[in-house]
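new request in #modeling-help
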Amino acid sequence: MSDTHAQTVSFVRESMIPQSEPPAGNRGAVLWMRENLFSGWFNIITTLISLYVIWWALSHTMPWALRGIWDASSLSECREIRDATLPEGTSAACWAVLTDRWQQLMFGFYPRELYWRPVLSLIIFLAAIAPVLFPHTPRKALALTAVSPFVMFWLLWGGSVWFPVSVALGFVLGWAAWRALAPLAGTLIASIVAAALPIIYWLYTAGPLARELEQAVSLSIEYVPSQDFGGFMLSFIIGIAGIILSLPLGILLALGRQSDLFIINKISVGFIEIIRGVPLIVWLFTASLLLNYFLPPGTNFDLMLRVIIMVTLFAAAYIAEVVRGGLAALPKGQYEGADSLGLSYWQSMRLIILPQALKISIPGIVNTFIGLFKDTTLVVFIGLLDPIGLSNAIRASTAWNGIYWELFVFIGLLFFTCCFSMSRYSLYLEKKLQRGHK
Amino acid sequence: MTTTSDAPKAGFRPSQLIYDTRYRSLTIQVIAFIALMLGLSWLVSNTIANLSALGKDFDFGFLGQRAGYDINQRLIEYDSASSHGRAALVGILNTLLIAVLGCALATVVGVLAGVLRLSKNWLVAKLMAVYVEGFRNIPVLLWILLVFALMTEATPQPRDFREGGDASMILGDTIAITNRGVFIPAPFWGAGAGILLAVFLVSLVAIFFWRRYAHRTQEQTGRILPIGWGTLGLLIVPTAVAFLALGMTSGRVTQPVLATGATEGMTLTDYAASQQTINACAVPFSTESLNLRRLMRSQEIRFNYVAVEDAAGALAALEAGNCNVLSLPASVDLATVPAGAVALSDTIRRGMPVEFERPVLGGFNFEGGLQLRNSLIALWLALSLYTGAFIAENVRGGILSVSKGQTEAAYALGIKPSRTMRLVILPQALRVIIPPMISQYLNLTKNSSLAIAVGYMDVRSTLGGITINQTGKELEGMLLLGLFYLVTSLVISSAMNLYNASVKLKER
């Protein structure tokens, strides 16, 4: 081809010039900065303002945090060290409060020699939740997950091993009743019996049975009363128990609210609206002030248990609304398809509707869990020693009177880590469960 | 030839209640109903037994009893002699105050942060991401305590504002941020304030009609009238003109200071020297009272301030001897002044329709102006910033939900970017943004019950706190408290449902 021009043009390039780099101002970091930070006068101003804000924030906090004093036994000693080592007028954090009191912030007044028990429970919890969270773990591990709540309960509170065992027997009893009755008498009778039998067992048999067994074979570790629980351990226990218990309850409530059965529907709607309409703190006060009115005279049970029940009911109402959104978002064809296959209500829910609805609701459910975990701080108002309550207690001691920011920073960072990782996990789950339209 | 199988002729058998789907739902409902009733009656009978065991009864009579405690922050008249019901009302108003203030600020912060998080400027977007994630992942209670600690521990004391102290007031010496609260100028209402308000309301109505007229003109003729400028002009100009006119006329009128036991034409200084104490009667938050106080202060006269309801109350107080110096509201004819009072030579101006009094440092604390307590400020800021982070995410999601094709289509039609935003993007985004935003408002209102952490006297602290502790009426108090929150929530959420119904995409 090249010789066609040979007579008319003096020079013809016959090969491509190798691609050259863009000019220096148009590549790499310079290009990025020009596009993202300095693309116009307005952008330049906002960049400068942001830089000023960042500089202002860092210059006020960083020197204070980095100069922090880690080795002291009281705030006044901290100040002495600061005045002796740093030039006058400089501020320095007193991180020594954390080295001095971190055990209290984590475990409350739990006996120091027994710290291995909550730590072990946490490890068991993480091991137990892995098969639920990540699909690659073997399915048989789910059996361990079912047992783990009772093990954790025993480790945390201690006492006789037979008490959690006899409580667990109730679940076994209910399951056995269902398996035995369902083929004989139909699902309705079977489920009523399976619900009623364990309740009767727990009310009348479980306690004496545990005592008998304890007398026969004594297997117990040191008992720790609930008053000694505190710090992040308390937040974790209330948060995790609330999360685990509220999800099934919330799903049931959501199904109830979508149900055609008039009475079931109205009960669910009333429950959800009443719980959601009133702040958690009012419910917590109800639990601490009023619950004794509603129970038979003479009953008195653990404040922590009451709080867990209240938090569970509260979170369940919110989860119910989230799941209801998921249920409503499913196309009607899915319900009709399930019906046309001849599936019963529970079969269609379990196999077709809920897997899809729950997938849609995952972000909302995780958000509710994050909210629940953050709300565990409110128990400070009814006298439980959560991290904030302990920070008040530490501030009330003579050694650390007047210390604020260091404790707030520590508590805030720990909460941030937990909640932020939960929200990242929900993003991961959302991506993984995404089907089709990519 | 059709062969249909007849429905079974056999009559109703009890087993159908369980196995036949036609009757089964009825069985389930009846069982659920019986269980519910049994549970409720169990609770009620327990409650009755417990109450009688404690010797308590169930009645709301305590609401009429004397409360006997003080509330430091109140929007309506209240003192310790008022009833528990009044205290509850003060608390309800305080809750509503913090809710309204918080919702307003949270909306501003949230919309700003949500829009900025979508900014093309990398630094701003990241900064906003840090703000949103930081506030969303840390308990609101911690934020409230943190802001409260900042307000009380990191702000200067009032004495630092003295000469030589290292603190100073901001915004032209009008606002002082101290560890006892934030002091801002207080509004005082003078003669003509009613006229000013009326003019303002009329201009609001005029704006409504102007906008309707402009829209109709555009629809009919295509001519675009300057809606924005017209609205702005109508909002500002009439009110400003009325303010200036009133200030020029009635504002310049001077009136004498009346005093008992004085001779005509005496100066205030001489009069003050002749009296043991000076008790000045004035209507609170009226410009006459403000100007009287200014006059007293400028002559360095110490005086007691006696608050009266209105002009008649002031005259009655003067005759009863509760005060010896008087400044009357402008509406009073001076001829009706009782015989004992004579005019001093000093006069005061009646003042503009609205005047502001700046806080000034006096004694150990600031005087004059409005004191916004630290508890209010801390709760307000923390709740707004916390809720703002959630609203920011709603706003971001809403704007992202409008597909890019909408913008491109609008540009293809030749619509300006600003108008594209206003007419194409926002109407679609608002449909997504508003419902979750209203539920955030609801959350903010409920979170305001955390006021307990900073000692702000909201309804939970009055009705659900001190009142319960004093009367021992836990059941009734908590019931009323729960009812208040429930009603508030239901009102807000039904408003949301109305809105949802009105913006729903109309489908056939």
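bot summary: The beta strands of chain A are 159-160, 220-221.
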